[in-house]
Amino acid sequence: MSLRTSISALSTKLLYRSHPFVMVNVLALFVLLAVRGYELTQVAAALPSGTSLFTVALQAVRADLLTWSSLFFLLSALFLLLSSLFSDRIALRVHSVILALLGAASLGMSQYFSVTLVPLGADLFGYSWDDIVETVTASGGLDVAAVAAIALIIAVML
Fold this sequence. Notes:
By secondary structure, the chain is mostly helical. It contains six helices and no strands. Helix 1 packs across helix 2 (53-85), helix 1 packs parallel to helix 3 (88-116) and helix 3 packs antiparallel against helix 6. The longest helix has 42 residues, at 3-44. It is elongated and about 70 Å long.
């Protein structure tokens, strides 16, 4: 067996094993883009006059790229660790569950921000859980569509 044949066999095996992992990550990226699009449409009306939605969208994409690329790197390392310790199937299932929970949390934080116009991180350390729930319900925030969207994200990712 020549070196070229060995490299070809190894690359084919690697591509075959990584295909489901790549597909789950691509699906997660589309879900996260949809969540960001939802957030931008909800917040667009509340922007001060003179603020460009394009500028806000660029800042959001920049923040998302920094956050999600580092998170995907850590999740990839976890996937490789689980794949080597257990099986590819278990590693992919754990990876999918984590991505689904992150997508649902992202949608929940976007919903909170679109209702209160305050990032959840600012409220999370200053208020109790009851205060946050009261704020969202008093502003008419948590509607059936948001809960259905969160359930849909979890269902699609799993």
